[in-house]
Amino acid sequence: MADKKSPASGWPLVKGDFHSGDANSCVAVVTFGSHLDEEGICGAGAAMCGSCKTENLGLEKVIANYIANPNIRFMLGCGTEVKGHLAGQTMMALHKGGIKEGRVVGAEGAIPFIENLNDAAI
User: Fold this and answer.
1) 96: Cα within 13 Å, side-chain hemisphere
2) Residue 81 and residue 59 in contact, taking contact as beta carbons nearer than 8 Å
3) DSSP codes of every residue in 17-33
4) Which of 18, 35, 66, 107 is most solvent-facing, going by the fewest CB within 10 Å?
């Protein structure tokens, strides 16, 4: 079993459209524009659950809160994309290709730029 660590003080650090649950959980759920029973999902054991509607600021909030909690190791992404923004596709592109000059490589959304997090955070 993995050793649990304390999340950053005040976690979740960045406020947004989500609920926080068990800070020791290794799973977080993000919905790309859709809404699920976020409180129920957190009650079932997720560290956090909420929506990410945009491929720039929304994605930055998700990343900032995930890296602030070293227990989160897995993200379950689900739901319908917001038309034109493609936050889910951008998250997959980020995982596959990373960032080049602030832009998510391979992202197809309207504004796939990560500007408020440094390379080490990403």
Assistant:
1) 9
2) no
3) SEEE--TT-SEEEEESS
4) 35
- The dihedrals phi and psi of 20, each to the nearest 5 degrees, come to -105, 150
pLDDT at 60: 95
Which of helix, strand or coil describes residue 97? helix
Contact criterion met (CB below 8 Å) for 72 and 29: no
Which whole-number Å values give the CA distances from 103 to 2, 13, 34, 75, in the listed order? 34, 23, 25, 21
pTM of the complete model: 0.89
pLDDT at position 1 is: 59
Instruction: Please state the domain extents for the chain.
Output: 19-82
Point out the residues of the chain with pLDDT beneath 50. none
φ/ψ bin of 10: left (φ > 0), alpha (ψ from -120 to 50), beta (otherwise): left
Supply the pLDDT for residue 88.
94
